[in-house]
Amino acid sequence: MNTMTLWHITGWEFAVLALAALLVGFSKTAVSGANTVSLAIFAAVLPARASTGVLLPILIAGDVLAVLTYRRHAHWPTLWRLFPAVAAGVVVGTLFLMWADDAAVRTSIGVILLFMTGVTVWRRRTAEAADDPGAVVTRAGRLKARSYGVLGGFTTMVANAGGPVMSMYLLSAGFRKLGFLGTSAFFFLIVNVSKVPFSVGLGLIDGSSLLLDAALVAFVVPGALLGRWAVHRINQLLFERLVIAATVVGGVQLLVR
């Protein structure tokens, strides 16, 4: 069956989706949060709700490549603290999707992303010293992990937009570049795979979406290779600024559409 005919997309639209898939690979191995641009592209070319189902397997492919690249740099105490809160956020997000329309979803996610970005920038400017990733075991660290975890689970379920929220959490926790990428790689692989049954149940993933995924997933690989090459050429300060900038762009795009 012809994928383009099935989804009623033109050759140019397919090319734009392929570019967005390449950007997913790049974001997974270089600048986490940049795939909010991919989210916006998919939502612009495809029906908004359907686009989340098409994008999810592509994100999982990028997650696998990121884990293979940065598996030795993950900080597991942080991951174990996050997962219960994220699971709660995914459930809340699923319930939200059962009644919310596209406008409500976009507005909610956009506001959350910009708010969390503002909080993170403010904390980093006013803090006397950077946090240590190990601080997640403190009472304040656990509270912060739960707050970000619920928001991350909610945003990743309703719009595949959990990347910027978790980027802000990992930056605020003082993660350096490779620890950031390794921890986020395992986090999103596990979370995105766990979302598949919910997405199938909501009708967001079906044979049609998987057919389009099969045509697009190959573009994730060159993007991931480009990201792996670029990440060692980006210093820590530039890395953090790029992550924050990508988050702001993603949040604004969701609000203005």
Order of helices and strands: HHHHHHHHHHHH
How many strand segments?
A: 0
Class of secondary structure makeup: mainly alpha
Strand percentage lies at under 5%
**How many helical stretches?**
12
The geometry reads as globular
Oligomer: single chain
The average pLDDT value, as a whole number, equals 80
What is the straight-line distance between the termini?
32 Å
- How can the largest sheet be summarized? none
Q: What percentage of residues falls in helices of 4 or more residues?
A: over 70%
In terms of per-residue confidence, which ranges show pLDDT below 50 for 5 or more consecutive residues? none
Return Rg in Å: 17 Å
Protein described:
By secondary structure, the protein is mainly alpha-helical. The protein is built from twelve helices and no strands. The mean pLDDT is 80. Helix 2 packs parallel to helix 4 and helix 3 runs parallel beside helix 12. 80% of the residues lie in helices and 0% in strands.
Secondary-structure blueprint:
Layout: H1 3-7, H2 11-29, H3 35-45, H4 48-70, H5 76-97, H6 102-126, H7 139-159, H8 162-172, H9 177-201, H10 207-216, H11 220-231, H12 236-256
Short description:
The chain has 12 helices and no strands.
Q: What keyword list fits this structure?
A:
mainly alpha; 0% strand; 257 residues
